[in-house]
Design goal:
Order of helices and strands: EHHHHHHEHEHHEHEH
CATH architecture of the largest domain: 3-Layer(aba) Sandwich
Keywords: Hydrolase
Pfam families: Hydrolase
InterPro entries: HAD-like_sf, HAD-SF_hydro_IA, HAD_sf
CATH topology of the largest domain: Rossmann fold
Number of domains: 2
Shape: globular
Protein name: HAD-IA family hydrolase
GO molecular function: hydrolase activity
Number of helices: 11
Largest sheet: 5 strands, parallel
Length: about 200
């Protein structure tokens, strides 16, 4: 293993900083149409970089919550969807110190990807971020894994990958990555041990 790819939401980040509940636990109750009007209609183009985040969100909010600006909701969103798994982050630091490159491999739009790296500070812990809006494809598309491999500069079999979604794990394996599904409370070394070979250290 030369490179370890790590998913963000559901692996490294779990909901709100205060209690770990999903970001829209109460917002969806108050803005019941947000899922239907925004995520089910606009999000598909935003997450692969075809459309920017704010204009589409502003248009939807003007319809379902005119008192709320897109900028305010984006700030709320990002601030309340950043609870880091500090134990995992510590384990990842040890992996990186051993000489293995770390990349985030995630479905994100441009603004949150930048926020994660700069404001949350993940740029100090990872060698880079491979994300759907920049690649033009989202997991589990084979193109996501092809482009991710190309940008990592290694062979598919030299990449390990952890993600919480079974469909992403299967797609990664089909492309030749060593992939394992992450579950809450898991330990990184135990998860990666599935990729080790006799005589070769993880």
């Amino acid at each position: 293993m030369k490179v370890l790819m790590v998913d963000v939401d559901g692996v490294l980040i779990h909901g709100r900083p205060t209690d770990g509940l999903p970001l829209f636990t109460y917002l969806e109750r108050d803005l019941g149409l947000l899922q239907q009007e925004f995520f089910q209609t606009c999000w598909g183009d935003i997450i692969i970089g075809r459309e920017p985040l704010e204009p589409g969100l502003a248009k939807v909010l003007a319809k379902i919550a005119p008192h709320l600006s897109a900028a305010t909701l984006i700030d709320y969103w990002f601030e309340n969807d950043r609870r880091l798994d500090l134990n995992l982050l510590e384990e990842l630091a040890a992996i990186r110190q051993s000489g293995i490159s770390l990349f985030l491999a995630t479905n994100q739009e441009h603004r949150r990807a930048r926020y994660l790296m700069e404001e949350v500070g993940l740029g100090a812990h990872f060698d880079g971020i491979l994300y759907s809006a920049a690649l033009g494809h989202r997991k589990p598309s084979p193109e996501f894994f092809r482009l991710g491999t190309e940008r990592a500069g290694v062979l598919p079999g030299e990449i390990a990958f952890i993600d919480d979604m079974a469909e992403n794990i299967e797609a990664a394996r089909q492309f030749g990555w060593n992939a394992a599904q992450w579950t809450a409370g898991a330990r990184l070394h135990e998860t990666l041990s599935a990729f080790s070979h006799p005589g070769r250290a993880i």
